[in-house]
Design the sequence.
């Protein structure tokens, strides 16, 4: 199976400043993440993914020093020239900041930047959602920045808990020319029957919008092994809700290395879709990422 990994990271902590890895620890859904406080570069990644035919990857911004959003782009550009990875990049930008216009324009003129990620402010629980709160997807300042994405040829990677996906649907309807990609399967952390039913309902609302796609990744649970038994139904439900053409498999490495090795996660993905037609499997592992992130494949065309 040829693979384009739709969500992965690199960092060099000796050379660059990533506050969440260099400063006081932040709250993290997998718990202790000290194991991530090491350099992770293409050689490490290729070793982790060596069992698979990795033909490309999508680098996602790493919460680099927020005062220097263009610095990460320059660093990734040098890495690409030296190592041949990543294929493309989703860069950092802060849509509600005064420099949004200049940053987005710069990203739009960079040949390998395909989109940006800005994590909107999120409530801790579904019952605490306040629509239009400062920093949220309904915040007028956020939307002013979001309106500039299509003008610069940029998509939007959205990382937010599932209880904010109705706001994402409203955003997608207001900006139908902007591709939105939900990160990490909408973060279905509550695995109770009630929690999963609510997560499915949120995904169905988002899937009504043709300009929303989703990455199946980030399915680890704190202090629990990554298994097909734990995650298989979530994977199949996501594909059923969004359809094969709008789903992509992704490793989230090295972050998801906290819960499983690369082989376990990707072999798990394969096991979950082994009964699907070969063309559907290839779409999930390769073709959809090539099309949505506009990656030039070895065949010489965007798939």
Sequence:
């Amino acid at each position: 199976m040829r693979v384009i990994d739709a969500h992965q990271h690199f960092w060099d902590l000796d050379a660059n400043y990533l506050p969440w890895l260099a400063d006081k620890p932040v709250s993290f859904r997998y718990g202790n993440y000290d194991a991530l406080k090491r350099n992770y570069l293409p050689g490490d990644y290729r070793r982790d993914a060596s069992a698979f035919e990795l033909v490309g990857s999508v680098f996602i911004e790493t919460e680099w020093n927020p005062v220097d959003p263009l610095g990460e782009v320059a660093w990734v550009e040098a890495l690409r020239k030296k190592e041949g990875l990543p294929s493309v990049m989703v860069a950092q930008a802060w849509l509600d900041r005064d420099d949004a216009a200049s940053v987005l324009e710069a990203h739009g003129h960079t040949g390998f930047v395909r989109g940006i990620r800005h994590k909107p402010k999120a409530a801790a629980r579904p019952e605490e959602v306040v629509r239009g709160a400062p920093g949220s997807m309904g915040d007028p300042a956020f939307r002013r920045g979001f309106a500039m994405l299509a003008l610069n040829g940029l998509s939007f990677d959205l990382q937010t808990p599932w209880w904010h996906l109705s706001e994402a649907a409203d955003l997608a309807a207001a900006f139908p020319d902007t591709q939105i990609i939900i990160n990490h399967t909408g973060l279905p952390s509550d695995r109770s029957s009630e929690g999963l039913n609510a997560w499915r309902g949120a995904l169905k609302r988002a899937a009504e919008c043709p300009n929303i796609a989703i990455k199946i990744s980030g399915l680890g649970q704190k202090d629990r092994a990554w298994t097909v038994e734990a995650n298989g139904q979530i994977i199949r439900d996501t594909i059923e809700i969004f359809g094969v053409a709008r789903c992509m498999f992704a490793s989230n490495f090295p972050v998801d290395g906290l819960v499983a090795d690369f082989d376990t996660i990707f072999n798990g993905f394969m096991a979950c879709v082994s009964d699907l037609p070969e063309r559907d499997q290839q779409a999930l592992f390769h073709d959809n990422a090539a099309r949505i992130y506009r990656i030039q494949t070895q065949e010489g065309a965007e798939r």
In short: The chain has a mean pLDDT of 96. The longest strand covers residues 53-60. The beta strands are 2-8, 53-60, 88-92, 113-117, 155-158, 180-182, 212-216, 247-249. The chain has one domain: 2-292.
